[in-house]
From TrEMBL:
<feature type="domain" description="Helicase C-terminal">
    <location>
        <begin position="217"/>
        <end position="377"/>
    </location>
</feature>
<feature type="domain" description="DEAD-box RNA helicase Q">
    <location>
        <begin position="1"/>
        <end position="29"/>
    </location>
</feature>
<keyword id="KW-0547">Nucleotide-binding</keyword>
<dbReference type="GO" id="GO:0005829">
    <property type="term" value="C:cytosol"/>
</dbReference>
<feature type="domain" description="Helicase ATP-binding">
    <location>
        <begin position="32"/>
        <end position="206"/>
    </location>
</feature>
<keyword id="KW-0347">Helicase</keyword>
<dbReference type="InterPro" id="IPR014014">
    <property type="entry name" value="RNA_helicase_DEAD_Q_motif"/>
</dbReference>
<keyword id="KW-0963">Cytoplasm</keyword>
<dbReference type="InterPro" id="IPR011545">
    <property type="entry name" value="DEAD/DEAH_box_helicase_dom"/>
</dbReference>
<dbReference type="GO" id="GO:0009266">
    <property type="term" value="P:response to temperature stimulus"/>
</dbReference>
<keyword id="KW-0067">ATP-binding</keyword>
<protein>
    <recommendedName>
        <fullName>DEAD-box ATP-dependent RNA helicase RhpA</fullName>
        <ecNumber>3.6.4.13</ecNumber>
    </recommendedName>
</protein>
<dbReference type="Pfam" id="PF00270">
    <property type="entry name" value="DEAD"/>
</dbReference>
<dbReference type="GO" id="GO:0042255">
    <property type="term" value="P:ribosome assembly"/>
</dbReference>
<dbReference type="GO" id="GO:0003676">
    <property type="term" value="F:nucleic acid binding"/>
</dbReference>
<dbReference type="InterPro" id="IPR027417">
    <property type="entry name" value="P-loop_NTPase"/>
</dbReference>
<dbReference type="InterPro" id="IPR014001">
    <property type="entry name" value="Helicase_ATP-bd"/>
</dbReference>
């Protein structure tokens, strides 16, 4: 599937190409044709799946077929729970609409009314708003809904959690009957379904379940860091977290031995587990690790493949694994039997392609963290989902 098969016109195709998107994500493939057909939709999709483009692109397509920026009227409204998301969605709209004459704005509380009112007087096509401020401006007759063609509830579950139900209901009650309604939510919980029932007539429903690889009981996150700071960051993390045990994956056996000695210099006792150690020693290490006598085991992925250790609280990828399936395999070592687990990866700029492959394999971005004192001088860019590697390489040991 490519973007050009989805019924989007050239200015939009050019915009997504200029952003480096090679093909649509799953939610985009499913949602774009439904929205273009004018159907109502409820979709279960999380942040990081490409959900924003899945509704913004077809909305742009529809709105670009006629041109009206009438004073105080919006043709599409996207409701978001937070100011940050409103700004972010508006930024995405500006990027996707870079070759179109459409105008958009972000609208949220806690700031002056005047510039927002002026923008509405000047005329916009799309308003990305938090519900409270929107209903407030509606009450002041600064915006009218009579020309509204599409209403999107983005991150509906979060909006409900934040207590926006009353404002949302007021907005829905004032939207023209024939407007198209779309609802996106990380989960379709009962309250979200209730809202959908009252707000969205005969919707199509799609659900992008995260790959089974992303077991929900495993908290996965990445720490961005410069390559030369990795070992001191790891020491810091081991010293400041209260982890009973951790399995630390590293790419090469030489790297494993070196890391163990670097940790030792900082007063942390760890053992190296790799193919350079004989079978008997390796067996012994596994027994001791299982018995809890070893707190930190630094292992190469290849050597550790056969280790079966239940219920590890933490797996740390000191190096990002290759290929992406190896990542899935590694994180499966924590959070077994529904126990909670953490899978943490240290990621530097030179790991970017590998990160793209892993996040594409998972179908979503991983949460990112910077640790005070270890923020990278060379930032790691945000991944391109659906990344296709040019060259394959082998895992080393
Ligand atoms: P979202 O789920 O909307 O927050 O999007 C997550 C990230 O994926 C954003 O950084 C988008 O720029 C990116 N993205 C969205 N669609 C695609 C695509 N088809 N190909 C590559 N990256 C994408």
């Amino acid at each position: 599937m490519s973007f050009s098969n989805l019924g989007l016109s050239q200015p939009i195709l050019d915009a997504v190409a200029s952003l480096g998107y090679q093909k649509p994500t799953t939610i985009q493939t499913k949602a774009i044709p439904i929205v273009l057909k004018g159907e109502n939709l409820i979709a279960a999709a999380q942040t990081g799946t490409g959900k924003t483009a899945s509704f913004v692109l077809p909305i742009l397509e529809k709105l670009s077929q006629s041109e009206t920026q009438r004073k105080k009227r919006a043709r599409a409204i996207i409701l978001t729970p937070t100011r940050e998301l409103a700004l972010q969605v508006n930024q995405s709209i500006e990027a996707y609409a870079q070759h179109l004459p459409l105008k958009s704005m972000a609208m949220f509380g806690g700031v002056d009314y005047a510039p927002q009112k002026q923008a509405l007087i000047d005329g916009v096509d799309i308003v990305v708003a938090t519900p409270g401020r929107l209903i407030d401006l509606y009450g002041q007759r600064a915006i009218h809904f009579d020309e509204l063609e599409v209403l999107v509830l983005d991150e509906a579950d979060k909006m409900l959690d934040m207590g926006f139900i009353e404002a949302i209901n007021k907005i829905i009650a004032r939207v023209p009957e024939d407007a198209q309604n779309l609802l996106f939510s990380a989960t379709l919980s009962n309250p979200v379904r209730e809202l959908a029932k009252s707000a969205i007539r005969d919707p199509e429903e799609i659900s992008i379940t995260k790959h089974s690889a992303s077991k929900s009981n495993i908290k996965q996150w990445i720490v961005t860091v410069d390559k030369d700071m990795k070992s001191s960051l790891l020491s810091h993390m081991l010293q400041t977290n209260d982890w009973k045990q951790a399995l630390i994956f590293i790419e090469t056996k030489h790297g494993a031995a070196k890391l163990v000695s670097q940790l030792e210099k900082r007063g942390i006792v760890a053992e190296a587990f790799h193919s350079g150690r004989n079978q008997k020693v390796r067996q012994q290490l596994i027994e001791s690790f299982k018995a809890g006598e070893i707190q930190y085991l630094v292992a190469t992925g290849v050597a550790a493949r056969g280790i079966d250790i239940e219920n590890l609280p933490v797996v740390i990828n000191y190096d990002l694994p290759y290929p992406a399936d190896e990542y899935v395999h590694r994180i499966g070592r924590t959070g077994r039997a529904e126990a909670a687990g953490e899978a943490i990866s240290l990621v530097s700029k030179d790991n970017f392609k590998n990160l793209c492959m892993i996040e594409s394999r998972l179908g979503h971005l991983l949460d990112r963290v910077e640790i005070e004192g270890f923020a990278p001088k060379k930032p790691v860019p945000v991944s391109i989902l659906n990344y296709v590697p040019k060259h394959k390489r082998e895992a080393k040991d």
